[in-house]
């Protein structure tokens, strides 16, 4: 079931390559912080020792890596399905949405996340693809049935400032 956004924008444009890249940098910093917290918890649970393949049980290492992967997906999935914007995307006024303009589903979020890994991993070819098409869709956009759009700038409340009387003055004087 598709869910529309609370605030609809009719004048969105496809997000630019540079703004997507900048949002990825912002979100990357947040992801690193999140993964550091998970790593600190794993060290605390392992009697102060870091998990590694040489000294830790294979199951513990596998669980740790799975936790890192799942936390990263849940970060993106939560924000993408909730309001279409991660914190990095919010800063650059970007939003991910379905091709019909609705919020993406968890299935689309999982597809988008899983397909973005090779899209970035192979020298960013999935992102560079967007420079070659008119729709400016990356490969993981296209394959997950989603798109990233640039939201318009919020209108300034200049009217309100003009309509408010100056402090200490009353209307009519």
From TrEMBL:
Say where the protein is mainly found: membrane
Enumerate the UniProt keywords alphabetically: Cell membrane, Membrane, Transmembrane, Transmembrane helix
UniProt GO cellular component terms: plasma membrane
**Annotated localization:** Cell membrane
Q: From start to end residue, where is composition biased (Basic and acidic residues)?
A: 153-166
Superkingdom: Bacteria
For this protein, the record's Pfam families field holds: RDD
Q: How does it sit in the membrane?
A: Multi-pass membrane protein
Q: Where is this region: Disordered?
A: 152-173
RDD domain: residues covered: 15-145
* TM ranges: 21-45, 57-80, 113-132
- The answer to keyword Transmembrane applying to this record is yes
| Protein name (Swiss-Prot/TrEMBL) | Uncharacterized membrane protein YckC, RDD family
